[in-house]
């Protein structure tokens, strides 16, 4: 199949998902060696889970099927330009190629944009709307990071 055929399938997933009113208009595919490994749709409305984005659903399914968190030999096709959360997951999964149809600007025009989140992430921590507070870790008796380093030896 061609890039355009994979993209058409991602868009069709988004369209059908929207038609069924199960989630927002996003669909995604993970492709390996020219074959679809996993599909995902935005399930946020149905599951009430703000992380149930199409790209994340497809990444989770592909990782489960392939038995790895490294998808560097796969490609992702998304109906829309990935949001900051999905883009982070794409980096963590080591995907090297992501193809998308609708741009962030088009998503914004439809009331689905993530410009606010991108803008917030770009600010220094102290200027963000959500305040991150670092608490004293020395009060804890167990250090999971030290344990991780010890077990990796």
Number of domains: 1
- Estimate percent helicity: 40-55%
Looking at CATH, which topology would you report? Cytidine Deaminase, domain 2
Q: Classify the secondary structure makeup into a structural class.
A: alpha+beta
* Molecular shape: globular
- Beta-strand share of residues: 15-25%
Number of DSSP strand runs? 4
Determine the CATH superfamily: Cytidine Deaminase, domain 2
User: Cα distance, first to last residue?
Assistant: 44 Å
Low-confidence stretches: none
User: In order across it, which strands form the biggest sheet?
Assistant: 2-1-3-4
CATH architecture: 3-Layer(aba) Sandwich
Q: Mean of the pLDDT scores?
A: 94
The rounded Rg comes to: 18 Å
Order of helices and strands: HEEHHEHEHHH
| Main β-sheet description | 4 strands, mixed
What is the number of helical segments per DSSP (H or I, 4+ residues)?
7
The CATH C-level name is Alpha Beta
